[in-house]
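FAQ: What does a ligand-bound record look like?

Like this one, built around alpha-L-arabinofuranose:
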Amino acid sequence: MPAARITVHPAFTTGPIDRRVFGSFVEHMGRCVYTGIYEPGHPTADADGFRGDVAELTRELGTTVVRYPGGNFVSNYKWEDGVGPRDERPTRIDLAWRSLETNQVGTDDFVRWAALTGTEPMIAINLGTRGPAEAADLVEYCNVAGGTALSEQRRANGADAPHGIRLWCLGTEMDGPWQIGHRTAEEYGRLASQTAQAMRRVDPTIELVACGSSGREMATFGEWERVVLEHTFDDVDYISVHAYYQEREGDRASFLASGASFEAFLHEVIATADAVAAKRHSTKRIRLSVDEWNVWYIDDFEGETNLELRETPRLIEDRYSALDAVVVGDLLTTLVRNADRVGVACLAQLVNVIAPIMTEPGGEAWRQTTFFPIALLARHARGIALDARLDSPRMTTAKHGEVDALSAALVHNTEAGELVMAVTNRSAEPVTTSLEHAAFGAVSLVEALTVRADDAGARRTRDEAADAAPRALDGVVVGDEATTIELPPQSWSIVRLRLLG
Ligand code: AHR
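The answer part, i.e. the structure of the complex:
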Protein backbone atom coordinates (compact mmCIF):
# COMPACT_ATOMS: atom_id res chain seq x y z
CA MET A 1 0.00 0.00 0.00
CA PRO A 2 1.51 3.41 -0.94
CA ALA A 3 2.40 5.61 2.03
CA ALA A 4 2.14 9.34 2.67
CA ARG A 5 3.23 11.65 5.46
CA ILE A 6 1.63 14.85 6.70
CA THR A 7 3.48 16.96 9.27
CA VAL A 8 1.96 19.78 11.32
CA HIS A 9 3.19 22.28 13.89
CA PRO A 10 0.99 24.85 15.68
CA ALA A 11 3.46 27.62 14.80
CA PHE A 12 3.30 26.96 11.05
CA THR A 13 0.03 28.50 9.96
CA THR A 14 -1.53 29.68 6.73
CA GLY A 15 -4.01 31.95 8.46
CA PRO A 16 -7.47 32.19 10.01
CA ILE A 17 -10.23 30.54 7.98
CA ASP A 18 -12.81 33.12 6.99
CA ARG A 19 -16.27 31.74 7.78
CA ARG A 20 -17.42 33.24 4.49
CA VAL A 21 -15.63 30.36 2.73
CA PHE A 22 -18.69 28.22 3.55
CA GLY A 23 -21.01 30.32 1.43
CA SER A 24 -23.59 29.44 -1.19
CA PHE A 25 -25.56 31.01 -3.99
CA VAL A 26 -29.25 31.61 -4.63
CA GLU A 27 -30.01 32.68 -8.20
CA HIS A 28 -33.33 33.37 -9.85
CA MET A 29 -32.77 30.36 -12.04
CA GLY A 30 -34.92 27.28 -12.48
CA ARG A 31 -36.33 26.28 -9.08
CA CYS A 32 -33.69 27.74 -6.80
CA VAL A 33 -35.95 30.55 -5.56
CA TYR A 34 -39.48 29.50 -6.56
CA THR A 35 -40.36 26.10 -5.04
CA GLY A 36 -36.80 26.14 -3.66
CA ILE A 37 -36.35 28.62 -0.83
CA TYR A 38 -39.81 30.16 -1.44
CA GLU A 39 -43.10 28.36 -1.77
CA PRO A 40 -46.11 30.01 -0.16
CA GLY A 41 -48.68 27.36 0.70
CA HIS A 42 -46.04 24.70 1.37
CA PRO A 43 -46.82 22.94 4.67
CA THR A 44 -43.58 24.28 6.19
CA ALA A 45 -43.80 27.83 4.76
CA ASP A 46 -43.70 30.82 7.11
CA ALA A 47 -45.77 34.00 6.80
CA ASP A 48 -43.29 35.29 4.18
CA GLY A 49 -43.69 32.15 2.05
CA PHE A 50 -40.24 30.74 2.85
CA ARG A 51 -39.99 26.98 3.20
CA GLY A 52 -39.05 26.00 6.75
CA ASP A 53 -37.63 22.63 5.69
CA VAL A 54 -35.19 24.30 3.26
CA ALA A 55 -34.23 26.94 5.84
CA GLU A 56 -33.48 24.14 8.31
CA LEU A 57 -31.31 22.24 5.82
CA THR A 58 -29.49 25.48 4.96
CA ARG A 59 -28.60 25.88 8.62
CA GLU A 60 -27.56 22.21 8.84
CA LEU A 61 -25.34 22.68 5.79
CA GLY A 62 -23.54 25.42 7.72
CA THR A 63 -24.01 28.07 5.03
CA THR A 64 -22.57 31.43 6.04
CA VAL A 65 -22.86 33.92 3.18
CA VAL A 66 -25.32 33.70 0.26
CA ARG A 67 -24.80 35.40 -3.11
CA TYR A 68 -27.99 36.73 -4.74
CA PRO A 69 -29.82 37.22 -7.20
CA GLY A 70 -27.42 35.92 -9.91
CA GLY A 71 -25.45 34.69 -11.80
CA ASN A 72 -26.42 35.40 -15.35
CA PHE A 73 -29.91 36.40 -14.19
CA VAL A 74 -28.64 39.63 -12.69
CA SER A 75 -27.33 41.02 -15.98
CA ASN A 76 -30.83 42.03 -17.07
CA TYR A 77 -32.39 42.50 -13.62
CA LYS A 78 -34.16 45.62 -12.43
CA TRP A 79 -33.99 45.50 -8.67
CA GLU A 80 -36.87 47.99 -8.45
CA ASP A 81 -39.22 45.30 -9.84
CA GLY A 82 -38.67 43.14 -6.77
CA VAL A 83 -39.54 45.58 -3.98
CA GLY A 84 -42.86 46.90 -2.68
CA PRO A 85 -46.26 45.19 -2.49
CA ARG A 86 -46.07 41.74 -4.10
CA ASP A 87 -49.30 42.13 -6.05
CA GLU A 88 -47.96 45.23 -7.79
CA ARG A 89 -44.69 43.66 -8.96
CA PRO A 90 -44.34 43.10 -12.72
CA THR A 91 -43.73 39.80 -14.49
CA ARG A 92 -40.76 40.13 -16.84
CA ILE A 93 -38.79 38.00 -19.25
CA ASP A 94 -35.51 36.87 -17.72
CA LEU A 95 -33.18 36.95 -20.70
CA ALA A 96 -30.49 34.79 -19.09
CA TRP A 97 -32.60 31.66 -18.68
CA ARG A 98 -35.55 32.62 -20.93
CA SER A 99 -37.89 32.28 -17.97
CA LEU A 100 -40.87 34.27 -16.74
CA GLU A 101 -39.81 36.17 -13.63
CA THR A 102 -42.75 37.10 -11.38
CA ASN A 103 -40.63 39.12 -8.95
CA GLN A 104 -42.45 37.64 -5.96
CA VAL A 105 -39.03 37.45 -4.27
CA GLY A 106 -36.77 40.50 -4.35
CA THR A 107 -34.11 42.24 -2.27
CA ASP A 108 -36.14 42.90 0.91
CA ASP A 109 -37.55 39.38 0.87
CA PHE A 110 -34.12 37.84 0.38
CA VAL A 111 -32.72 39.84 3.29
CA ARG A 112 -35.53 38.44 5.47
CA TRP A 113 -34.72 34.91 4.28
CA ALA A 114 -31.05 35.53 5.15
CA ALA A 115 -32.09 36.53 8.68
CA LEU A 116 -34.23 33.38 8.90
CA THR A 117 -31.28 31.18 7.95
CA GLY A 118 -28.62 33.14 9.86
CA THR A 119 -26.71 33.87 6.64
CA GLU A 120 -25.08 37.03 5.31
CA PRO A 121 -26.45 38.39 2.02
CA MET A 122 -23.94 39.12 -0.77
CA ILE A 123 -25.63 41.13 -3.50
CA ALA A 124 -24.62 41.15 -7.17
CA ILE A 125 -25.50 44.23 -9.20
CA ASN A 126 -26.44 44.39 -12.87
CA LEU A 127 -23.53 45.59 -14.99
CA GLY A 128 -24.95 43.98 -18.14
CA THR A 129 -27.74 46.36 -19.03
CA ARG A 130 -27.25 48.94 -16.26
CA GLY A 131 -24.48 50.98 -14.66
CA PRO A 132 -23.25 53.14 -11.78
CA ALA A 133 -26.50 55.05 -11.22
CA GLU A 134 -28.68 51.99 -10.63
CA ALA A 135 -25.99 50.33 -8.52
CA ALA A 136 -25.61 53.41 -6.30
CA ASP A 137 -29.41 53.56 -6.03
CA LEU A 138 -29.52 49.98 -4.75
CA VAL A 139 -26.84 50.73 -2.13
CA GLU A 140 -28.86 53.75 -1.04
CA TYR A 141 -32.05 51.66 -0.87
CA CYS A 142 -30.33 48.97 1.21
CA ASN A 143 -27.79 50.74 3.40
CA VAL A 144 -28.85 54.34 4.08
CA ALA A 145 -30.75 54.65 7.37
CA GLY A 146 -33.34 57.16 6.14
CA GLY A 147 -33.96 60.71 5.00
CA THR A 148 -33.42 60.05 1.26
CA ALA A 149 -35.96 59.04 -1.35
CA LEU A 150 -34.78 55.45 -1.71
CA SER A 151 -34.08 54.77 1.95
CA GLU A 152 -37.55 56.09 2.79
CA GLN A 153 -38.97 53.84 0.07
CA ARG A 154 -37.36 50.83 1.82
CA ARG A 155 -38.81 51.96 5.14
CA ALA A 156 -42.24 52.34 3.55
CA ASN A 157 -41.83 48.81 2.20
CA GLY A 158 -41.52 47.52 5.76
CA ALA A 159 -37.77 47.48 6.40
CA ASP A 160 -37.29 50.26 8.92
CA ALA A 161 -33.66 49.47 9.72
CA PRO A 162 -31.08 49.52 6.91
CA HIS A 163 -30.11 46.11 5.54
CA GLY A 164 -26.41 46.87 6.05
CA ILE A 165 -25.24 44.75 3.10
CA ARG A 166 -21.43 44.55 3.26
CA LEU A 167 -20.51 42.38 0.27
CA TRP A 168 -21.28 43.42 -3.32
CA CYS A 169 -20.35 41.82 -6.67
CA LEU A 170 -19.71 44.23 -9.54
CA GLY A 171 -21.69 42.21 -12.08
CA THR A 172 -21.02 38.59 -12.96
CA GLU A 173 -19.05 36.69 -15.62
CA MET A 174 -18.74 39.78 -17.82
CA ASP A 175 -16.04 37.99 -19.87
CA GLY A 176 -18.55 35.39 -21.08
CA PRO A 177 -20.07 35.80 -24.57
CA TRP A 178 -23.31 34.32 -23.14
CA GLN A 179 -23.61 37.21 -20.69
CA ILE A 180 -26.19 39.90 -21.50
CA GLY A 181 -24.05 43.01 -22.05
CA HIS A 182 -20.73 41.15 -21.93
CA ARG A 183 -17.68 43.32 -22.38
CA THR A 184 -13.98 43.36 -23.10
CA ALA A 185 -11.69 43.54 -20.07
CA GLU A 186 -10.98 47.21 -20.84
CA GLU A 187 -14.67 48.10 -21.08
CA TYR A 188 -15.61 46.13 -17.97
CA GLY A 189 -12.63 47.38 -15.96
CA ARG A 190 -13.56 51.02 -16.53
CA LEU A 191 -17.25 50.42 -15.84
CA ALA A 192 -16.50 48.41 -12.68
CA SER A 193 -14.18 51.13 -11.38
CA GLN A 194 -16.72 53.90 -12.01
CA THR A 195 -19.51 51.84 -10.47
CA ALA A 196 -17.42 50.97 -7.41
CA GLN A 197 -16.66 54.63 -6.82
CA ALA A 198 -20.32 55.63 -7.10
CA MET A 199 -21.38 52.85 -4.71
CA ARG A 200 -18.68 53.80 -2.18
CA ARG A 201 -19.82 57.43 -2.22
CA VAL A 202 -23.13 56.14 -0.84
CA ASP A 203 -21.57 53.72 1.65
CA PRO A 204 -17.77 53.80 2.09
CA THR A 205 -17.80 50.69 4.29
CA ILE A 206 -18.88 48.19 1.62
CA GLU A 207 -16.62 45.42 0.28
CA LEU A 208 -16.46 44.98 -3.48
CA VAL A 209 -15.75 42.06 -5.80
CA ALA A 210 -14.56 42.60 -9.38
CA CYS A 211 -15.40 39.93 -11.95
CA GLY A 212 -12.60 37.55 -12.74
CA SER A 213 -12.84 34.95 -15.48
CA SER A 214 -15.79 32.57 -15.84
CA GLY A 215 -13.34 29.69 -15.81
CA ARG A 216 -9.69 28.78 -16.20
CA GLU A 217 -10.45 27.51 -19.71
CA MET A 218 -11.61 30.91 -21.01
CA ALA A 219 -9.38 32.16 -23.84
CA THR A 220 -9.03 35.53 -22.11
CA PHE A 221 -8.15 34.07 -18.67
CA GLY A 222 -5.15 35.76 -17.09
CA GLU A 223 -5.16 38.78 -19.35
CA TRP A 224 -8.74 39.48 -18.22
CA GLU A 225 -7.72 39.54 -14.55
CA ARG A 226 -4.67 41.71 -15.27
CA VAL A 227 -6.57 44.34 -17.26
CA VAL A 228 -9.58 44.39 -14.93
CA LEU A 229 -7.34 44.83 -11.88
CA GLU A 230 -5.26 47.53 -13.60
CA HIS A 231 -8.52 49.50 -13.70
CA THR A 232 -10.05 48.49 -10.38
CA PHE A 233 -7.11 47.74 -8.05
CA ASP A 234 -7.80 50.72 -5.78
CA ASP A 235 -11.56 50.20 -5.85
CA VAL A 236 -12.05 46.54 -4.98
CA ASP A 237 -11.22 44.06 -2.23
CA TYR A 238 -11.75 40.82 -4.14
CA ILE A 239 -11.50 39.33 -7.61
CA SER A 240 -13.94 36.53 -8.39
CA VAL A 241 -13.10 32.98 -9.42
CA HIS A 242 -15.68 30.64 -11.00
CA ALA A 243 -14.92 26.96 -11.46
CA TYR A 244 -17.09 23.98 -12.41
CA TYR A 245 -15.96 20.38 -12.92
CA GLN A 246 -17.53 17.24 -14.35
CA GLU A 247 -16.59 13.64 -14.98
CA ARG A 248 -16.00 12.91 -18.63
CA GLU A 249 -16.52 9.46 -20.13
CA GLY A 250 -13.68 7.11 -19.31
CA ASP A 251 -11.56 9.64 -17.40
CA ARG A 252 -12.38 9.27 -13.73
CA ALA A 253 -8.77 10.01 -12.68
CA SER A 254 -8.84 13.53 -14.15
CA PHE A 255 -12.18 14.22 -12.49
CA LEU A 256 -10.85 13.04 -9.14
CA ALA A 257 -7.90 15.40 -9.59
CA SER A 258 -10.15 18.43 -10.23
CA GLY A 259 -8.92 19.90 -6.93
CA ALA A 260 -5.36 20.05 -8.29
CA SER A 261 -6.49 22.08 -11.30
CA PHE A 262 -8.65 24.24 -9.01
CA GLU A 263 -5.69 25.02 -6.76
CA ALA A 264 -3.47 25.89 -9.74
CA PHE A 265 -6.24 28.22 -10.96
CA LEU A 266 -6.44 29.95 -7.54
CA HIS A 267 -2.66 30.42 -7.50
CA GLU A 268 -2.64 31.83 -11.04
CA VAL A 269 -5.25 34.45 -10.12
CA ILE A 270 -3.32 35.32 -6.93
CA ALA A 271 -0.08 35.67 -8.93
CA THR A 272 -1.79 37.95 -11.45
CA ALA A 273 -3.29 40.14 -8.70
CA ASP A 274 0.08 40.36 -6.96
CA ALA A 275 1.81 41.27 -10.25
CA VAL A 276 -0.60 44.20 -10.61
CA ALA A 277 0.20 45.18 -7.00
CA ALA A 278 3.96 44.97 -7.66
CA LYS A 279 3.71 47.25 -10.66
CA ARG A 280 2.03 49.84 -8.46
CA HIS A 281 4.51 49.34 -5.59
CA SER A 282 1.50 48.44 -3.48
CA THR A 283 1.37 46.18 -0.44
CA LYS A 284 -2.39 45.75 -0.85
CA ARG A 285 -3.41 42.13 -1.33
CA ILE A 286 -6.52 41.43 -3.39
CA ARG A 287 -8.34 38.38 -2.00
CA LEU A 288 -10.30 35.77 -3.91
CA SER A 289 -14.07 35.52 -3.92
CA VAL A 290 -14.65 32.06 -5.34
CA ASP A 291 -18.28 32.90 -5.73
CA GLU A 292 -19.27 30.02 -8.01
CA TRP A 293 -17.78 26.57 -7.62
CA ASN A 294 -19.16 23.06 -7.86
CA VAL A 295 -19.47 19.88 -9.87
CA TRP A 296 -21.80 20.61 -12.82
CA TYR A 297 -22.59 18.23 -15.70
CA ILE A 298 -22.67 21.19 -18.05
CA ASP A 299 -22.49 18.96 -21.16
CA ASP A 300 -26.05 17.84 -20.32
CA PHE A 301 -27.36 21.43 -20.35
CA GLU A 302 -29.43 22.29 -23.42
CA GLY A 303 -28.04 25.87 -23.55
CA GLU A 304 -29.63 29.21 -22.71
CA THR A 305 -31.03 29.92 -26.18
CA ASN A 306 -32.82 26.56 -26.52
CA LEU A 307 -35.02 27.12 -23.48
CA GLU A 308 -38.77 27.48 -23.74
CA LEU A 309 -40.14 30.65 -22.14
CA ARG A 310 -41.93 29.56 -18.94
CA GLU A 311 -42.23 30.08 -15.22
CA THR A 312 -40.10 28.07 -12.80
CA PRO A 313 -38.65 25.47 -15.21
CA ARG A 314 -36.60 22.55 -13.91
CA LEU A 315 -33.12 23.69 -14.98
CA ILE A 316 -29.83 21.86 -14.39
CA GLU A 317 -31.20 19.74 -11.55
CA ASP A 318 -28.15 17.46 -11.61
CA ARG A 319 -28.27 14.35 -9.45
CA TYR A 320 -24.97 13.61 -7.77
CA SER A 321 -23.01 10.41 -7.18
CA ALA A 322 -20.81 9.43 -4.25
CA LEU A 323 -17.87 10.20 -6.54
CA ASP A 324 -19.19 13.76 -7.00
CA ALA A 325 -19.33 14.08 -3.20
CA VAL A 326 -15.65 13.08 -3.00
CA VAL A 327 -14.70 15.73 -5.56
CA VAL A 328 -16.85 18.42 -3.90
CA GLY A 329 -15.20 17.52 -0.58
CA ASP A 330 -11.79 17.93 -2.20
CA LEU A 331 -12.69 21.28 -3.78
CA LEU A 332 -13.82 22.69 -0.42
CA THR A 333 -10.74 21.19 1.27
CA THR A 334 -8.65 23.10 -1.31
CA LEU A 335 -10.41 26.35 -0.44
CA VAL A 336 -9.77 25.82 3.27
CA ARG A 337 -6.08 25.07 2.59
CA ASN A 338 -5.78 28.43 0.81
CA ALA A 339 -7.31 30.38 3.68
CA ASP A 340 -4.72 33.16 3.48
CA ARG A 341 -6.12 34.42 0.16
CA VAL A 342 -9.60 32.96 -0.19
CA GLY A 343 -11.91 35.32 1.67
CA VAL A 344 -15.28 34.28 0.25
CA ALA A 345 -16.52 31.15 -1.51
CA CYS A 346 -20.03 30.27 -2.68
CA LEU A 347 -21.10 26.82 -3.70
CA ALA A 348 -23.25 27.25 -6.83
CA GLN A 349 -26.06 26.78 -6.05
CA LEU A 350 -27.98 26.11 -2.81
CA VAL A 351 -31.31 24.55 -3.80
CA ASN A 352 -32.44 22.46 -6.81
CA VAL A 353 -30.03 24.04 -9.33
CA ILE A 354 -26.81 21.93 -9.19
CA ALA A 355 -27.47 21.90 -5.48
CA PRO A 356 -26.87 19.97 -2.26
CA ILE A 357 -30.53 20.55 -1.25
CA MET A 358 -33.41 19.35 -3.45
CA THR A 359 -37.13 19.92 -3.07
CA GLU A 360 -40.39 18.70 -4.48
CA PRO A 361 -43.12 21.32 -4.85
CA GLY A 362 -45.54 20.72 -1.99
CA GLY A 363 -43.35 17.83 -0.87
CA GLU A 364 -40.16 17.13 1.00
CA ALA A 365 -36.69 18.62 0.91
CA TRP A 366 -33.72 16.22 0.83
CA ARG A 367 -29.94 16.11 0.91
CA GLN A 368 -27.86 15.17 -2.15
CA THR A 369 -24.57 13.27 -1.73
CA THR A 370 -22.59 16.52 -1.92
CA PHE A 371 -24.37 17.89 1.14
CA PHE A 372 -22.42 15.71 3.56
CA PRO A 373 -18.77 16.77 3.09
CA ILE A 374 -19.79 20.43 2.91
CA ALA A 375 -21.72 20.23 6.18
CA LEU A 376 -18.85 18.45 7.92
CA LEU A 377 -16.23 20.96 6.77
CA ALA A 378 -18.42 23.95 7.64
CA ARG A 379 -18.93 22.53 11.14
CA HIS A 380 -15.39 21.46 11.93
CA ALA A 381 -12.95 23.47 9.75
CA ARG A 382 -13.00 26.43 12.13
CA GLY A 383 -10.06 28.41 13.39
CA ILE A 384 -6.60 28.39 11.87
CA ALA A 385 -5.54 26.69 8.64
CA LEU A 386 -2.16 25.05 9.20
CA ASP A 387 0.69 25.16 6.72
CA ALA A 388 1.10 21.38 6.70
CA ARG A 389 3.91 19.59 4.95
CA LEU A 390 2.46 16.88 2.70
CA ASP A 391 4.57 14.11 1.22
CA SER A 392 2.19 12.22 -1.05
CA PRO A 393 2.41 9.50 -3.66
CA ARG A 394 1.78 10.89 -7.13
CA MET A 395 -0.75 9.86 -9.75
CA THR A 396 -0.98 10.51 -13.47
CA THR A 397 -4.06 11.98 -15.11
CA ALA A 398 -4.85 12.54 -18.79
CA LYS A 399 -6.02 16.12 -18.23
CA HIS A 400 -3.92 17.52 -15.39
CA GLY A 401 -0.68 15.53 -15.77
CA GLU A 402 0.98 14.27 -12.60
CA VAL A 403 -0.62 15.38 -9.34
CA ASP A 404 -0.50 14.48 -5.65
CA ALA A 405 -2.71 11.49 -4.89
CA LEU A 406 -3.61 13.06 -1.56
CA SER A 407 -5.01 16.50 -0.90
CA ALA A 408 -5.36 17.63 2.70
CA ALA A 409 -6.33 20.63 4.81
CA LEU A 410 -5.18 20.69 8.44
CA VAL A 411 -7.03 22.93 10.82
CA HIS A 412 -6.30 23.97 14.39
CA ASN A 413 -9.80 24.37 15.78
CA THR A 414 -8.81 26.51 18.72
CA GLU A 415 -12.40 26.85 19.98
CA ALA A 416 -13.01 23.11 20.22
CA GLY A 417 -9.39 22.27 21.08
CA GLU A 418 -9.09 19.95 18.09
CA LEU A 419 -6.71 19.17 15.28
CA VAL A 420 -8.91 18.50 12.23
CA MET A 421 -7.74 16.88 9.03
CA ALA A 422 -9.82 16.80 5.82
CA VAL A 423 -8.15 14.55 3.29
CA THR A 424 -8.94 13.21 -0.16
CA ASN A 425 -7.40 10.10 -1.60
CA ARG A 426 -7.79 10.76 -5.33
CA SER A 427 -6.09 7.54 -6.39
CA ALA A 428 -7.59 4.14 -7.18
CA GLU A 429 -5.46 2.48 -4.47
CA PRO A 430 -5.71 2.69 -0.68
CA VAL A 431 -3.05 4.95 0.86
CA THR A 432 -1.71 4.79 4.41
CA THR A 433 -0.82 8.20 5.74
CA SER A 434 0.97 9.11 8.88
CA LEU A 435 -0.11 12.40 10.47
CA GLU A 436 2.88 13.67 12.47
CA HIS A 437 1.50 15.87 15.25
CA ALA A 438 4.16 15.61 17.99
CA ALA A 439 4.36 19.42 18.29
CA PHE A 440 0.71 19.50 19.36
CA GLY A 441 1.31 17.07 22.25
CA ALA A 442 -0.94 14.13 23.08
CA VAL A 443 -4.20 13.64 21.17
CA SER A 444 -7.18 11.31 21.22
CA LEU A 445 -9.58 10.38 18.45
CA VAL A 446 -12.91 12.20 18.43
CA GLU A 447 -14.28 10.98 15.13
CA ALA A 448 -13.15 9.71 11.73
CA LEU A 449 -15.63 9.65 8.84
CA THR A 450 -15.31 8.88 5.16
CA VAL A 451 -17.26 9.19 1.91
CA ARG A 452 -16.18 6.66 -0.69
CA ALA A 453 -16.90 6.68 -4.41
CA ASP A 454 -18.65 3.55 -5.58
CA ASP A 455 -17.47 1.64 -8.63
CA ALA A 456 -20.46 2.48 -10.80
CA GLY A 457 -20.35 6.22 -10.07
CA ALA A 458 -24.16 6.16 -10.23
CA ARG A 459 -26.06 9.42 -9.84
CA ARG A 460 -28.21 8.95 -6.82
CA THR A 461 -31.92 9.41 -6.36
CA ARG A 462 -33.36 10.84 -3.20
CA ASP A 463 -33.47 7.47 -1.39
CA GLU A 464 -30.03 6.40 -2.60
CA ALA A 465 -28.35 9.70 -1.70
CA ALA A 466 -28.78 9.10 2.03
CA ASP A 467 -26.68 5.92 1.70
CA ALA A 468 -23.74 8.10 0.65
CA ALA A 469 -23.71 9.78 4.05
CA PRO A 470 -20.24 9.55 5.62
CA ARG A 471 -19.45 6.29 7.40
CA ALA A 472 -17.00 5.52 10.17
CA LEU A 473 -13.42 5.34 8.88
CA ASP A 474 -11.75 2.28 10.34
CA GLY A 475 -8.02 1.87 10.54
CA VAL A 476 -7.13 5.04 12.50
CA VAL A 477 -4.37 4.31 15.02
CA VAL A 478 -3.54 7.18 17.37
CA GLY A 479 0.03 7.35 18.68
CA ASP A 480 1.94 9.74 20.93
CA GLU A 481 3.71 11.49 18.08
CA ALA A 482 1.76 10.41 15.01
CA THR A 483 -1.57 8.97 13.96
CA THR A 484 -1.75 6.41 11.18
CA ILE A 485 -4.77 6.50 8.90
CA GLU A 486 -5.74 4.09 6.15
CA LEU A 487 -7.47 6.02 3.41
CA PRO A 488 -9.77 4.04 1.10
CA PRO A 489 -9.33 4.57 -2.64
CA GLN A 490 -11.27 7.49 -4.17
CA SER A 491 -12.50 8.81 -0.86
CA TRP A 492 -12.86 12.02 1.11
CA SER A 493 -12.41 11.78 4.87
CA ILE A 494 -12.39 13.92 7.96
CA VAL A 495 -10.45 13.01 11.11
CA ARG A 496 -10.88 14.96 14.33
CA LEU A 497 -8.30 14.64 17.09
CA ARG A 498 -8.78 16.16 20.55
CA LEU A 499 -5.75 18.09 21.80
CA LEU A 500 -5.10 16.82 25.31
CA GLY A 501 -2.23 19.14 26.20
O1 AHR B 1 -24.61 28.63 -11.53
C1 AHR B 1 -25.16 28.54 -12.80
C2 AHR B 1 -24.67 29.59 -13.76
O2 AHR B 1 -23.31 29.34 -14.03
C3 AHR B 1 -24.67 31.01 -13.28
O3 AHR B 1 -25.81 31.71 -13.51
C4 AHR B 1 -23.60 31.64 -14.10
O4 AHR B 1 -23.02 32.72 -13.45
C5 AHR B 1 -22.64 30.52 -14.40
O5 AHR B 1 -22.29 30.48 -15.72
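Follow-up question: can I read anything off the structure? Yes, for example: The chain has a mean pLDDT of 97.
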